[in-house]
## 1
Amino acid sequence: MLEKGNLYIDFELVNKKLEKIRLSSLIGQKIALAFYPGAFTSVCEKELCTFRDIMAKFNNLSTKVFGISVDSPFANKAFAEKNRLNFELLSDFGGNVSRKYGGVHEEFLGIENFVVSKRAVYVIDEEGKIIYSWVSDDPGKEPPYKEIEEVLLG
């Protein structure tokens, strides 16, 4: 699991248009990664809509925001459209990137082979260093939005 002070781990995931997004190609600006357990769940919807609502601040700060889950690109597309999300959702189908960052919940909800991302937020600075990390073992807990905003403003 990555923590504050670590360098980012590069990855390439697909967005809702099936375009490949490589993290290393974005280094040079602040990046916020919001890992979430699943599209169309109440807490995830509230979290990503909160990020949507504060995006104006992120955009003014030249911060690129990504939501990341194990959902398919097709579920992410429908989720983004339903909630009018103004940032990219990336599909970590299989959870490999989630495992390297904040971790996953195995056998989620007691369902065999059902793996979801742990709710986690990382902010990466312009040099690729993690300047903020927050991970919750409780999938029902929302991230501390004010804390994240302060890091982005700092």
## 2
Amino acid sequence: MKAVIQRTIMPAKVTVDGKVTGAIDKGLVVYLGVGKEDTEEDIIWLSRKIINLRIFSDDEGKMNKSLVDIDGGILVISQFTLFASTKKGNRPSYLNSGSPEMANQMYEAFMEHLRSVYDRPVAAGIFGADMKVSYTNDGPVTIIMDTKNKE
């Protein structure tokens, strides 16, 4: 799994066909890509890292606080393009992305796991939909994680 994580201290929302499908007041916006070799182990590792990432500022302006510390939410957006390969030519290849069926199952399992271990708002877009995401990237702070490299 690959994730692009951005912090927001303002409301964030995702809409599909003009309807809000997920929203948080503050916290993390997570773009999640599922690869064809991802497993439940990836879900568990990534969930733990996201919840415990200390990327929110403390009273001294240092990034020492996690989602738990700020009582923040998580807005998860499915994003198969995180597995784009631009090695050859100018048209990205998505051969390393999970199939739509497998990726949707893993996305749903990821959401279910997050909700089971994190008792604050966990919101989402709709897998495979044309989504509009709006928020302010605070900082800006953007973290990229890859479960296969454990970074």
## 3
Amino acid sequence: MSNESLSDLGKTLTDSFYKGLDREAILAAIRQNKKTLSAREMVAAVWGISDDAVLGKLVDLGLTSDTVAAISLTPLVAVAWADGKLDKKERAAVLEAAREYGLEPGDVSYLLLEGRLAERPDPELMDTWRNYIRMMSKILDTESLCTLRGELIARARQVAEASGGILGLGSKISKSELALLDELEQAFS
């Protein structure tokens, strides 16, 4: 696999994530945000990958901080919308997960996430995300891949558990959310 193909797919994923959003407003926020992280810093902070060789390889392959945000936040948005609607608890869970990732209101990735939550994502976004993860799975070492998978799936599961059940009884995760969580897992194989 060439560096160019992963880089191109990363650009497609980022473009899909931005689709329909006010890109100029987001870019203005990027310019004003003095604490914008590099891709290397964002991968280390968000995904917990600290191996310098792996970080260097990802950056060399064209991974950008925007792509890290799209990779990290797409599963959360998809799970929140899995049943065709987004309720307040799911929205709050997604935004809380974003804060746990270190994003703050006003951060570029946080603004992107709020924009993505406003409407159900286009299926193209998840298709591109799955393709990107499959390509990354061929590049990352086993430990880094397990770290990434664990982080992304755990956050997505938190969103799925945010609402559901009747009077606090039964499974809080709907069938559509379970199916999507399974799809997320399968993207890593």
## 4
Amino acid sequence: MAEDLDELYQQVILDHCKTPRNFRALPGASRRGEGYNPLCGDNYTVFVAMDGDRVREATFQGSGCCISKASASLLTDAVKGRTKEEVKALFGQVHDIITTGRVTGDGLGKLAVFAGVHKFPARVKCAILAWHALVAAVDGAETPVTTE
């Protein structure tokens, strides 16, 4: 059973890597966050259109490994309609999934695919990079974030 789940997770990650969702600039974005991993070169910009305190739309551009691209792709769908505080809470849950493999809470959906990343410490920064950029965007940060 665990092998079947691992295979499903790998398929979801590969799908979002090969065909990333919302992979484009967002004209008229009210905020943007840039993230860079100097160790491997992953580099993403997350664009966010806010309606007050709520994310109306999120997109991303950049380049990186399959895990970082899949993570950015999945986050763009996961945060639509969420408030700034909900985005930050979701970041905490995703960070926990990526670093410990524990999936807690409801409403995580496909984000649970990153539970296996904790087994590969070198990939943790890949999986969380776009999420750091997202938090910087909703906070209105002016400077790029790094994984270091």
